[in-house]
Amino acid sequence: MRNSIWDCPRRRALRVLPSLVVVTFVLSACGGTDGATGPTGATGAAGATGATGAPGTAGPSGPTGDTGATGAQGLAGPTGTTGATGATGATGPAGTTGATGPTGATGPTGATGTTGPAGPGITWIDVTGTTAQAVSNTGYLADNSAPVTITLPANPVLGDLVEISGVGAGGWHIAQNAGQQIYVGFTNTTWSPHATRQAWVALAASADGTELVAVANGGGIYRSADSGMTWAPTSAPTAYWESIASSTDGTRLVAAALYGDIYISTDSGTTWTDQSSSLGSQQWLAVASSADGMTLLATDSTDLYTSTDYGSTWTLPLPGITNWGALASSADGTKLVAAQEPGFIYISINSGLTWTQQAAAGSSQWNSIASSADGSKLVALTFNGLGVYSSDSGSTWTPVSATASLQRVACSTDGTHLAALSMDGVLYISNDSAVTWTQIPTAPRSADGMVMAADGSGVVLALQSDFIYSARSESTPGTAGFITGAQYQTVELQYFGHGLFSTVSNEGLLSTR
After folding, report:
1. Is 171 helix (H, G, I), strand (E, B) or coil?
2. Residues 133-161, mean pLDDT to the nearest whole number
3. pTM here?
4. Residue 342 preceded by cis peptide, ω within 30
5. Where are the beta strands (DSSP E) in 330-448?
6. Which of 77, 173, 197, 428 is most exposed by smallest CB count within 10 Å?
7. What values do phi and psi take at 5, rounded to 5?
């Protein structure tokens, strides 16, 4: 009987491990009871790691860890497919205009259009007799040694034309029907000489221009009753006449003589009366008259005199103020104008009872003044060619604008039309109240006396040591008016409506009546 472990047969086994030899003793069970467990032996050296076991079941997820740092950007993926086009946005503001491109090539000529209707044209008729009735849109050759009278169409249509040419030596004469008139213009008209050569210095006219009077320095006073065509001496004495004025109807006249007296006529110059005997002989320079001849204004340079009873009595409204020259009166005689040379312009609005100095017009060597019939429009010129104009009876004044230096002036009844003579004697016409002026080179130069028709259509000039000349810018209305032309002269007239024909063109100056 073996009672200890040492009694059991022992088998040895050798296990060879790298660099280590381990001797293992295997004890075989022997019979007998086990002895008490011996004390635990010292822990053997660790064995080699066994093969990895099969994975165990996953444990529960642990808490989420902190986000790691962003990784580097990966490579760009392939471009995706193009998305659908979005809606059109609002139109933006217009850009600046680009530079003009080069001119394109000329396109082919278009087809010729259809022929329009024939125009009125002019059909010419050779008039070998002395009269002819004109038809619209017709031309007439005045072909006679005597003047050929051609009467305008009685019922023209707006725009109708009539042409006249002088072929024969007699020239032509265009007659008018009732209510008709022909406008020519001062630049196209001739200036006809009348009367005899005298030292003419002043003129006056009735409102309609039929009655004219003229005075000669060192001569007499002459009258015309046919708008200046013919002249005859009146009964006035010979004197050094300086100025003359007329009533609207031409019956009442007032004339002033240098080194003499003031004479008045109440019968268009048939008889004359000395109306200044109470004043004595003076060096009278100028006179002015109201339309009825009741209110008069006169000056002898030293003093200014007024009369409100046709010259029967005279008053001295501005004693102590001297150097008077140019004078003017409104038609009713309430508004009077007097100017000094040199000095100021003075205006009275109560027929000369009181006067107001026009300081705004300035002080100058005033030479000539003209007034409209109502006294609202005034124009004054100086010896050195300057001038002022007022459209409000002298409340305000503006300089006269002209291309020439103007010295002497006359105006129409309404003050719109003006005639003025320059320092070198050239005539200028304004039809817009002195705003613009037109030179009339065909007018005679260096006139001393000048009047303008009430409607501005006519001007009469009186020249020293020469004749009295007249011209009209338009014919007299109705059957009394006409225009004439000589051989080789031509005129083309067009109908403007309301009875008025106007010159479209002309060759040579025309005479009007």
Report:
1. coil
2. 97
3. 0.72
4. yes
5. 336-340, 345-348, 356-357, 366-371, 378-382, 387-390, 398-399, 406-411, 418-422, 427-430, 438-440
6. 77
7. -65, -25
